[in-house]
Amino acid sequence: MDQLAGVIRRSFRRKSNKRGSIHGASASEDRSIPTDQKTLVLSGGQSFFEYLVVVSLKKNYDGNYAPQITYQFPKLENILHFQKDEEERLLNAIPLFCFPDGNTWAPLKEYTSETFSFVLTNIDSSRKFGYCRRLLPAGNGSHSPEVYCIISSLGCFGLFAKILDEVEKRREIATALIYPFMQGLREATFPAPGKTVKIKSFIPESGTEIIELTRPLDCRLEHIDFKTLLQCLNSQIILHIFASVVLERRVILVARDLSILSECIHAVVALLYPFAWEHTYIPVLPHVLIDTVSCPAPFIVGVQNQFLSHILDQPMEEVLLVDLCKGELIQKVGDEEKILPPKLQEQIRISLDDYQQITKTTPEINTAVSKTFMQFFMKVMGHYTSHLQEINVGKFTFQEKAFLKAIHSKTIRRFLKCFVKTQMFSIFIEAQQNKSTQNVYFQQKVKEFNEQRKPERK
């Protein structure tokens, strides 16, 4: 267990800060997803998943239940020795995340299936997503829940939730029907944004079915559900969380349901677009690793509320602790209301209040919320393009002092003086210095925003 805990805790390490090279011309890639993977995620062309595992609860000699992988598809084959060691470490970690709630389980007669996700960090800092469906095995009598977990390097919760629906549908008929479906999915190519892939699957008495899996045209939001976050928290608390993560602090969200935890944490990270959270985020922290919240590095983690007392017993440094079930702050640093520029903060609050009162579909909410926070970044630092100075052909340097001085608002300048020190800002600017194609959507919106402001300045 100590070795396994070490694998998980490794994700808490803070990546080396490249702050010293921000004024140079070298580019730094987005650490959250390697460049080669990022291109495939955006354009399609990659396999859907790496493997499907079934995690079941097995009774130990002491009478407690422990999660174990009871099936894996496909088996690890034709990989290098060091890759095999890393994959085995990750596979050993998966059961903890499928059953993060400890070993207090007992057989049940009824259990409402739930869908959630987690994130594992590889030794090279790349990330893998685990998409989970927890449910009771078929049959009469009492049973312990089991989890069907799909491991993928692709962040696309909505699409994998639909895949898990198909897995559960086949499992209700016969477990053997799952694997031909997954094999068909494995042979298919992950579609480009806005495109559809069709999977043929045979079901007894129904014949051959065609399952259509379509990606949204705007792939920035395909892993996100802002609606759940808005249902759990009021606008003021959401702003407290945003202010904390934008300065790369420590944030803990607490809830009863695994699905709410994972959805809300993914939503919080998405508020940062076009920036990426460069540190640890664990949507559901396993009980055996609760002590990792005392780590001094930045993190965003989710914890089930049954372990709240354990969290409060930890020697934590400054942290924002939020109860998603009660919609209230449990613990805060105290300056969260003063971090963001007041005028812009009030604009966001009014917009969020409107979204909570108006009935809209999840895609509509996702688009509206994303636009609101993206506009915040455009207003505070949309002028960054004017302060990228070309020093050699194709090489640029960022004029930070001039960038800060160009802001007339004292409150915005005060915020930016803190924000430019973050790792997410450093990496974003380094990418711009190399004229990276990352965040093209944001770059286009910034261009439109600056064009609209020109008449106002005259």
UniProtKB/TrEMBL annotation:
GO terms for molecular function: guanyl-nucleotide exchange factor activity. Residues 50-439 form the UDENN domain. PROSITE patterns: DENN. It comes from Xenopus tropicalis (Western clawed frog). Keywords: Guanine-nucleotide releasing factor. This is DENN domain-containing protein 2D isoform X1. GO terms for cellular component: cytosol; nucleoplasm. It comes from the Eukaryota.
